Task: structure prediction
Amino acid sequence: MLLKGRAWKFGDNIDTDAIIPARYLNTSDPKELARHVMEDADKDFHSKINAGDIIVAGANFGCGSSREHAPIAIKAAGIQAVIARSFARIFYRNAFNIGLPIFESEEASEKIMEGDEIEIDAGRGVIKNVAKKEEYTTKPIPPFMQELISAGGLIEWTKKKIKTSYQPT
Result:
């Protein structure tokens, strides 16, 4: 899985309220959530991003409440991946469950700047900063987890598995 996009930079401790403010949790519609993604951190974020862009952040990204709305809002807005120094564990699990690839890399988190063009080879665990001609390492995403992401998350992967394995008698 190769991902390419422009970086949007955020700092440490971006919590789920900064990703999708609680005042918008009266809906679970991904399109509506996407309109408000990162609004409290950058009020114009949704109007500046393009499909395929990548968020780069500091430590403890996705801390706070365990709401699934946060990775859903990011993915629905067209952000194809998040790179951070570290992730809150529940955000980490929720991201993969909904099919949003995330990567931990201290070096990438520090050196990538907003606007840099980056490429991520998920299978090899390599993040390239095209602008600076630098490479950083991250843990590769195992093939099974890449399958989950490609399917659109755990629920969609499970539906496909059930459909292909179910044989009526």
Q: What stands out?
A: The mean pLDDT is 93. Residues 154-165 form the longest helix (12 residues). The chain is about 35% helix and 20% strand.
